[in-house]
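Each record in this resource describes a single protein on a pair of labelled lines. The shape at a given residue is found from the number at the same position. The record below illustrates this layout:

***
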Amino acid sequence: MSPKTAQPELIQLAARPTAVRIVSTTTDEWRAARAQAVLEQEYARGLAEGEARALAGAAALLAKAAAALDAQRQADSEALARDSMDLALTIARRILRSEVDAGRYGLEAMVRETLGASGAGRGACVVHLHPADLARLEGLPFRAGTELQADVEVARGDVHVTTARGTVVRELDAALAAVARRLSEDLPS
């Protein structure tokens, strides 16, 4: 070939050709088109990889947010249970005090149950009551050896029984406190 004619270039193929076609482009144009195709392919691969990484990161953030939301839901649920219990006890205390103030409670039964719990049997004992409660029980028979006494230190609705073995106290506020403790034990911690 003369110096003015182009020298044929050797092109190394990755695989044996299965078909041949004639193109009207130069080798440089073919290489540029091939490079553009490889560039587009690599761009698409990089884009897909970036999207996959972004989704993986978003999934991790979503999982973290879900865990935080679940922890907050659990804390709110426990707080709601405690607040509900406190509200119920406050309502019960107010209703109980209202009923006591109105005299709508089984005072005689309370005194007899407290006497039974004292273990005094037929022995001597003193039942300490609020003066208004003592007035309600006047004229009711109790076992021999039982003395009813007015005590301004005892709240209405409360009963204190003093025996030779000690004192048995039945107080409404203490009963509500015991209920509150029991309910608190049943609450999730």
Summary: Residues 21-104 form one domain. The CA atoms of residues 117 and 168 lie 8 Å apart. The first strand starts at residue 125 and ends at 129.
